[in-house]
Protein 1
Amino acid sequence: MKILITGGAGYIGSTIGSALEDRGHETVVLDSLVVGHRALARNRPFYEGDIADGQLLARIFGEHPDIECAVHCAALISVPESVEHPYDYYVNNVGKTLELFRNLDDLGCRKLVFSSSASVYGEAPGFLVDESAALAPESPYARTKMIVEMLMEDMCKTGDVRGISLRYFNPVGADPELRSGPHGKATGQVLGMLVDVAMGRRPVFNITGTDWPTRDGTGVRDYIHVWDLAQAHVKAIEGFDRVFELAGDRSQGHVVINLGTGLGVTVKELVDAFEKAIGHEIAKADAPPRPGDTAGAYVSGDLAERLLGWRATLSVQQAIVDALRWSKVREEILGD
C-alpha cells in the first residue's frame, strides 16, 4: 500500500514512515520543514510545501495515483507557544487542515488517520481517561486537535470519507534502528530536555510545576515510546476497514482511539528513571508551571487493543535508552 504522510519529516511522522516501510508499504512525504527536517525524509518521495496547497497535492497524486490513505501528522506542536501565538496555531493546525481534507476528498483519498492528542481531555478522577471521558482542552494547541476531530466527524458523516483519530500524550524515545528521533522543537519535550542536560547542551532541567494534586506534586503523564506509537499507526492503516466493522454503526465513519501505556508516570519519577539509566544525577531545579500546563493524565488502551489489536509493549526505561543512543548520532544523521 502507498500512504501519504503529512509532517513525514517530523519526529513522529518519520518514525511512522519507517514502521510502515518495515511492513513493506511505500510512503510519500509532504512537509513544510517548519517543524520537520529534510534528512528524516531521505530515501522517500519528498515534497516540500504547505498542506493547504491544492496544486501541490494535485501534483503529488498525479505522480502517485496509487496513494490509498493519508496520515496527517503535520502541526505546530508546542503548548506554551500556542498560548503565546494562538492565531498561528488555529491557522496552521485547523485552517490548513480543513483545506487538506477538502483536497484529499477531491483527489479521491478518503481514508484518513489523524495524529490527534489526548490533551483534548480534561482532568479526570484518578487521572485515567478513556474515550468516553469529557473533552476539556486547556490550551490553544489542544483545542486545535479537538476542532480537527470535529471537522473529521462532520466530513465522515457524509459517507464518502472515513477517519480514525488517534489520541495520545507524550511520545518519547527514538526509532530503535536510529533512523529518526527528536529534533528541533521536539527536543524541547521532557525526555529530549533531560538528554540535552545530560549531554551538556542545556545547563539545567526545570521541573515545571511541583504543586499539582499528584502523588509527588509533579505532573503525571503517559509517556509512550514513539516506536509503539508508530506501530499503532501501522495497525490502524492495515486494519482500517476492520476497525469500522468492529466499531459498528455508531462510528458514523469516524472512530476515536486512545493510544497509551495505561501507566501514569510523574515528572519526578521520569527524572529518577533517567538518572538511574545514566548512572548519575543531573542539574535540575523546581520551576513554576508553563503556560497551558495541566496536572496531566494517562489513557486506557483497552479500545486500541480491541479495535487495532495493539498494546504498548516498550517501557519508559527503553525509551530513555533509545533517546540517549539517538542523541549520540543525531548531529551526524541530521547534518547539523
Protein 2
Amino acid sequence: MSTKTELTSIGLMSGTSLDGIDVALLRTDGVTVEHLGPTFFEPYTPPQTMRLRTLLEMAQQEGRNLMGSPVVSAVEQDFTRAHARAVQALLEQEALKPSAIDVVGFHGQTILHRPAERWTWQIGDGGLLARELGITVVNDFRSADVAAGGQGAPLVPLYHQALLRTLDPPDDDWPIAILNIGGVANVTYIGRDGTVAACDTGPGNALINDWLQRNTGALLDAGGKVAASGKVHEDRVRRAMQREYFLRSYPKSLDRNDFFLDMLDGLSLEDGAATVTALTVASVAASRDILPATPGRWLVCGGGRKNPVIMEGLQRTLQVPVDPVESVGWRGDFLEAEAFAFLAVRSMKGMPLSTPTTTGVPEPMTGGKLFALG
C-alpha cells in the first residue's frame, strides 16, 4: 500500500475493438485527478489483430480448457511485450525515466467474461511487464469483483465520477450519462446527489467492425459511410432487442462475443451495416430506461463517437444533448487508459474499484494484483 499522497501513473488499455494500445499518464491521489499528462497510441499490426481475434474465437469454443495452452502463452508474451514497447515509446516521447513513474495500470485483453460463473479472463503478464519496464505494475483488475459475485464491469465509473468533479455542469444537464462506445458499449450514470450506476448497454463497435471485416476486409466502417448508404431492417433490430439481457436492470455486463452476426443473414453489406449500427443505438436507448432517472445530457467517448450515424441516431432517439466528451475538455480516445491509471493508484492504496451499483458486488471492492520490483 502506497504512503505517497499523489502518484504518477500510466494506464494501458487494449479494448474490445482490437485496434491497438492506448497509453495515458496522469497524476492522482485516487480521489481527484490532479493532472492529465501525455498520451500515446500504438496501433496493432494486422497480424497482431488477427492473433487476438483467433484467440477470442478459440476461447469462445473451448472456454477454460484453453487456459495454459502454448498458444495462449505465446500470444500473451507477445501481447505483454507490445505493451512494454508502447510505454517505452511514451517515456521516450516525453524524455521521462522509468523512475519518474510510480505504477503502471495494465488492463490486459479480455478473452472471456463469464460473471455468472464467477470467472473472467484477461491475458497479460503483469510480472513480465514490470520486469521489462522496471516499473511497478498493477493488473487483473476484475477478478476479485467477479469472485465476490460482481459483474467485474464496467470499472470506469469511479474515474468518470472523479473527472466530473472538475466540472460545474448546468442544472439542466443532471443527471449526466457518460457513454463509452468501444467494442462493447457501457454507460455510467451520475446524479447530482452523488449516485453512481453503471452497466454494459450492448454491442458498441464490435459487431459493426466484424460485419465489415467479414464482407470487405476493412477493420471498421470509417465515418459510418457504409451504414449511411444502407437501410435499417427495423424488424431485425426489434427481434435482437427482445433478448432477456436488455430487460434486466443494472448492473450487468457482456462478453464481446455475446452477440452474433446471424441477425444480419441475407442482408447486403450496406443494409447489414445500417441495421447493426441501429442496434447499438437501440441498446443505448434501452439502457436509459433502466437508469435511476432520465439523464439530461450524454457525454460520449470511445471510437463510436467518431461515427456520425451512431451519434445522429443517439441524438434523435435520446432527445437530449449528446456530445463527444471533448465538449467538456476530456480526451475521448484515452479515457479508459486514464481510468486504469487511476484505478492502479486506488488499488495500491487499498481503495474500492467497484461498488454495488456499478458492478453488483455485495460491498465496495478493491482489487488488482501488484507486481512490485525488488
